[in-house]
Queue: 2 jobs
Job 1
Amino acid sequence: MSNPYIVLPVLFQLFVAVILMFAWNRKNLQKLISVVGSLIALLISLALLIKVNQEGIQTMQAGGWIAPFGITFVADTLSALLVVLTATSGLAVSVFSVGSVRNARIKFGYFPIFHLLIMGLSGAFLTGDIFNLYVWFEIIIISSFVLITIGGEKAQLEGAIKYVAMNLLASVVFLTAIAILYGLTGSLNMADLSLQVANVSNRGLVNVTAILFLVGFGIKSAVFPLYFWLPASYHTPPPAISAIFGGLLTKVGVYAMLRVFTLIFIPDDFLTTVITVMALLTILSGGFGALMQNNIRKVFSYLIICHIGFMLAGLGIYSTVAIAGAVFYLVHDIVVKTNLFLVSGVIFKFRGTYSMRLLGGFYKEQPLMSLFMAIPLFSLIGIPPLSGFWGKLLLIEGAMDQSNILMIVFILLGSFLTLFIIAKLWAEVFWKDAQELPKKKYIRYFDELKPLKKQAMLASVVFLSLISLGIGFGAEWVMQLALRIAENLMDPSPYIQAVLGS
Amino acid sequence: MKTIIFKTASVFLLPLLLLFSVFILLRGHYLPGGGFVGGLMASTAFVIHSFANGVERTKNIVKFHPGFLMPVGLALALLAGSLPLFLGETFMTGLWMDQPVPVIGSVGTALFFDTGVYLVVIGVTLTIIFTISEGL
Amino acid sequence: MEILLVIIIGLLYAAGIYMMLRRSLVKLIIGLILLGNGANLLIFLLGKIVKGEPPIIGSTEKMLGELYADPVPQALILTAIVISFGLQAFAIILIKRAYKVVKTDDLDEMNATDEDL
């Protein structure tokens, strides 16, 4: 169904960014605009999700050029759901930034760039054109480059160089893949490509293109042999920025894989084997990497990698149930990973360090806050009523259907490693006796902040924890949504029909 | 490069190139040209001026921080792109005036979008060049 | 023409990857620029090179009659060039800043991100 308003989530973020740029030097006004703007953006995206849920797939042809000639925007349930989650994380991080981001960073345009990043993410989820997806990816990476370097500390710049180099390489690989795909089919519209690629006689070249896409998206979503940039960079910027990176940037790569490998390239046995092996090794290397770390933000960085493996495993199993599991896990992971980095930011504000060895006694000092921090940590492990459990359940069910014992073993191993890591982290950071830490001059500790800033930081953690709880307890609803999304992904004919007409 | 010939020429080249960049911007709809090329040309004018007279002089000519052109251009482009949305058309649909305007020709939202691009390109390029040339 | 382009693209990719594998940051950027140019030429090549007319329908005709050049690859290349222009400018400023702060352009000596804190 044609609907010109589905680009509103994207346009509104651009609008907020432009307004923020006009208010360049007025820091408090910027904070207000950013929070209010994020709230309105959340409402707009919720409206879009409700609309899609009621009336089916919505499309928009930019400039009125009919598909497959123009650029198409498509909002199916997966896209709309991810746009809502982007807006949710965006709101939480925007509120957190009010409390935590230093004025020096705001002066260099932190808030406008942040909203441009959210715009890029929403655009990437909504577009139905492969080259347009590339453009949104570039918008995402260039805003993330600015965010990761803003402030210019030594570790930040070094992390940024690694991040920039790998992401630029990923873009080139992605662009190369698009070039070959265009040469093969003469089309860029994803729905049209779905029909065209099936007719290409040169299957070898199609497989090579698929592998190129896998490598390009693999670098962006940090899967096994391509993840080394992530733990080298995600712990360097301020926590608010890490949160939006950890929550959303890798997930956009996973979304692109889910989309491309269900719509354009239907994986054959070779491709599913490659994806499966990558997924298993990602789980393993992320889990063991996290075990070795002492910096809590690095632990979370490796856990991102470990849990990307779960989503990829869903794609590797390639059945409706398993993909539903991957989608459920994606939903859960966006909220939880954003929250974890915010939690690390709050802990840092209290103690002035990220080192697990030096931290301790947080539970005794802040029992209520610790309870809210426990929710994302335990969701991550997948303790039953919490949100991580249901995604894993679906994944294991999917693997069981294909009697894929190896996959089940690795998923359980990954969960067990996560349990071990979180238990260690909980014991070290929350239960261990507190030690006297020397006060550092350049850090503004939590007690020295204004009440509004304190409340902003804590409120965003509580907000995301409650959403995590909501996903866990409202699992039936989310699961039905995930199953419907998976059905639509496995059988893309309604998508193609909505874009191209009958 | 601060020779007297280059210095003298740069003073005359600046307005000429700026005028030419506007010409390139306006002819862009049907002929080669447009906002991006025009914007690059306009920033080249400032670059030539800064080569001849030093960056500080050029900064004095521009008066305001070139970064300010970015939100202005973005706002213009956003407005031109989303104007059709208010009339029930899809985003980026070209709306055209019925009567052509003398000298310029027919005017539509595409022109305003291009002007937005033109301003953003000048803003971005000058910001980049002023930043790179800092402390060289 | 096609054979020539294929050779150039291959050389650009090979040189780009070779440069990226060096430890110097400046060479890293050069490598990325070469790779980007290689990708752009690849789009140009795969968009099928024909000696055709520009794809503009005259005011008296209803559809394209002559052999025409595909405008899409050119639009893609233009977009990709604009994007890589921005990214490369950013990367150059980044390595300049990093050089000032870290005082080296050797990637092997950038170990602050591996420190244990």
Job 2
Amino acid sequence: MTPVARNRLIALGALLVAGVGLGFVAFGNIGENLVYYWSPAEMLAQGDKAYGATIRLGGVVQPGSIQWNAEHTTLHFRVANDAKEGTASVLVRSTETPPQMFRDKIGVVVEGTYDKSGVFSSNRLMVNHSNEYRAPKEGEDPNKWRETLTDGTTTASTGTGAR
Amino acid sequence: MNGTIGYGLVLGGLAFAAFGAVVGIFTGLRRSEAGFPWVMRAVWGFAGCMIAANLVMVYALVTHDFSVKYVAQVGSRDTPLLYTVVSLWSALEGSILFWGLIMGGYIGAFAWVHRREHARYMQLALGTMLAVGVFFAFLIAGPANPWGAMSPVPADGPGPNPLLQNHILMIIHPPFLYLGYVGMTVPFGVAVAGLLRGEIGEAWMAPLRRWTLVAWLFLSIGIILGAWWAYAVLGWGGYWAWDPVENASFLPWLTATAFMHSTMVQERKRMLKLWTLSLALASFVLTILGTFMTRSGIFNSVHSFTQSDIGPTFLVFLGVLLVVCIALLAVRGPLLVPEGRMSSLVSREASILVNNLVFVAITFTVLLGTLYPLVSEAVRGVRVSVGEPYFNKMAVPGGIAVLFLMGVGPVLPWGTPDKATLRRQFLIPTGVGLVVSVVCFAVGMRGFYPLLTFGLAGFVTVITLRELVAPVRVRMAERKEGLVTAVMTSATKAQRRFGGYVVHLGIVLIIVAVAASSSYVKHTSGTLKKDQVMELDGYKLRYLGLVSGEEPHRTFVAARVEVTTPSGKVDEQKPRLNYYERSTDPIGTPAVRETAGEDLYISLMAFSEQAGNASFNVWVFPMVGWIWWSIPLLVLGTLIALWPRRRAVVALSGAELGAAAPLAGDDAKQGAA
């Protein structure tokens, strides 16, 4: 074996080791940092496996479940599979200020962990933008938001009933 | 009417591209030059059709021709003119059409600039580019056809996506990204032509480098502007979230950057030829993968356009591309024999090789993290996403390695170094780096990674400045030139080196700004009643009340916040929520109080007139503005490197003569590069 060929072999071997090492570290890291997308029903079906994992829980805000304490910035609400009554739902506790769009029946994704007490602690609350930029329907006032300023209802909790 | 003309033009473009691709590749492979004029005509035809088709669409948008499907989808009579024009790229179909325009422009520009080059080569390169053009023209004509007829014709449309209208950056950052993405088509064409011919001489490495650099610059600007947009508009208090769409633009940037470095080894040492070409091919394939990820809606992402039929088409194209690339590299690769050898592991070429491996490793890990959710869902049926910590854990060490190499590489000489000289040269920069780290620690900064980053940044900056200044000082001392003359001559003498180091300074700035803003960010949130105060990092924020107002395309509610800075200055900030006519949900615009040292970032979350309060999210980001303010450095450096040299004119005329004797032309080009 010539020195050149030997050097090449060594280089190739080193690369291989480095590559395998990198893949190992990368896959290990991915495994530790997976975030599971579950609906309330799916998460509850996981049983013990759901405890402690980082979860993105997606669903809709159960009507009438929002409790928002502005003084202490604590927010409790239930995320349900869908807006119908009687579907699976999970109690969520969040320390985040709910965004303006947050209201009953709106689609939300909360990221956090679920524990044995049955409360989902969320550190991130995302409201689904309704991605439809449609023309207003018959009899719907596109400037409905103004009502929030004039008649004084708050959009943060009671909702403007845009749909 | 507009729809018919536009569709006709797209079909015309498809025909021109198909014709040019077939003629170019076949005659090129048969070593005949007969097809060249026809390929050039096909290029003009393709570019012309694409430009005209876009003009027709803009005309249809401006005249509110709602019989065209795309106009009915994004147009509206009361959208301001500017937003009407830019809504060309506000939704899927229009953005693919716009893509076609840029592609036509790029191929046309390449054909024009190199029209006097060696015809056989040009045929292959242009043929390959036109083959890519076929795919995009097919997309516009079929799966993403914006020209469909509406019946009955609606009286008005919904207007473009409110996010597009919310901030000027949303208008300008997509074109930059497209210019970056599509620009990779040109190096791809050149590289494939080189592989098809089984040789790639210096005469063709020069255009390959230059066009990659053009695309690289646009891509860099697009990525930074996109980050800025996310920061200034989305209001979640960050600029980068390792979102699949962000990763999509980052991946080709990584390989293109690696390419730019390995090409120097190829040039100087005639090594890494196959590797360099692989990187050029990979950059293009990754842009297509990126487009697929962005545009097919397979990812749930804030920016992606969901629900479209172009996914399968893209997948097929991606598959064909992969097969072609791998086959070319396998079959033709052995023809690219290295002529040089690595003589020392402590040398410029070794440092660039390591740099390349680091870039490829980062690419691999980011790609893995981006695609993992897809594979997981397809194979196991488990819907997961890969969290940000994964990307940060992998990218931070990678970034630090890149920073370190940016300092070491320029000091190491090509070939075999002299150890004593090296030691002397590293002494001062290392000292400065240590001092920077110690000073940062002394003023209260903590954390291993940020301090290491700042120290290395000091190390790299000293080396880079020394490399920039040394030739100037030599000229001033030995030739008694004035400062300006000396700077100008040394910049023009070694344009690429000089420009490269200027870009390095910009990158150092970005890395430092990213490290500082992510390590030392401060955050709080809260709900304030009128005249209540909250504090963050020395800033006092007093809520003064709500104001509302109207603008042509939207109305807004703003919260007046009186800000008292740590140094006692008082001013007023107005974070706001914007309401668009036809969108039910408000879109926020955070208020950002920018200073050189740090940004105060206030996002209005919610307000209630009844309770008289408003909720805010507040951040303090140190140094974050430097990420975007690095753009001028990147542009300056790239322009210095790309600026055509006077000698290039001579070389071009040499190439013109060289039609009879191509080798002579090739040699002349070598000097010009």
